[in-house]
């Protein structure tokens, strides 16, 4: 069977090998592209696609971060009533795509004495909540001072 340049090009794209390796694999497999791919894979010249994706450290890290983010939530509440409860992953995505809106919202939340909490899946608080409480108290103190100044003026 004659090997065509189209077959060689297709095998090169699929297996990411050179012309010579693609031609030799096709010749050994009588022009069968699937068999040639299997042959190249058995020669460790290409990795199986699934193994490549599973082995990627970047993909593993991204999956781990998303998994952790989905197990945590951002809760905004006022007077023990929940105003907003979002998974952390969604809050981060929203922050990335709508930064100005998020900043304005945070300022409003802090000025109106709402509480911002980060909670784990099981309901436990995160350690960052202590720092958020300190910032909230400082903002509340400044807000109260400004209110008194306006009232007295």
TrEMBL record:
InterPro entries: DUF4342, UBA-like_sf. Residues 45-120 form the DUF4342 domain. Keywords: Membrane, Transmembrane, Transmembrane helix. It comes from the Bacteria. It holds the Pfam family DUF4342. CDD domains: UBA_NAC_like_bac. The chain crosses the membrane at residues 88-111. This is DUF4342 domain-containing protein. It comes from Clostridium moutaii. The lineage of its organism: Bacteria, Bacillati, Bacillota, Clostridia, Eubacteriales.
